[in-house]
């Protein structure tokens, strides 16, 4: 690890490209979901996590952790989704202060309708132009960065 405080020109270019990808890729995915099913990318993320959970419900705190969101952000997101009939909240019997976010039939239907187009877009933008070795390299690099971020978060 370098003690030099500045990035090299090459590192600066990579860093700026990384920032551009993390801004532009979600924007494209969001536009696709909006046009296809009037869902936002955060809507889709919540619906996916709930659809994969036992009984299609998760405690709000667990969902926030899975999404890596602040509790307040999730609460506002779920409130917006409740108004549209995609999810509902259910009190937690073991903890009067806690609640579950639950997937509705309408939410499941919207997710199932949106998922194929979303998967096609992700594949087209991220995977179709990479061969198997490049995908494995990308996976390894992303995991290494995430491991370092986890250490920094601890």
TrEMBL record:
Do you know which SUPFAM superfamilies this protein is assigned to? Winged helix' DNA-binding domain
**Coiled-coil ranges per the record?**
50-84
Designated name of the protein: MarR family transcriptional regulator
PROSITE patterns attached to this UniProt entry: HTH_MARR_2 (PS50995)
Instruction: List residues of the HTH marR-type domain.
Output: 11-147
Record the organism.
Ammonicoccus fulvus
Name the lineage: Bacteria, Bacillati, Actinomycetota, Actinomycetes, Propionibacteriales
Q: Does the keyword Kinase apply?
A: no
Q: Which UniProt keywords apply?
A: Coiled coil
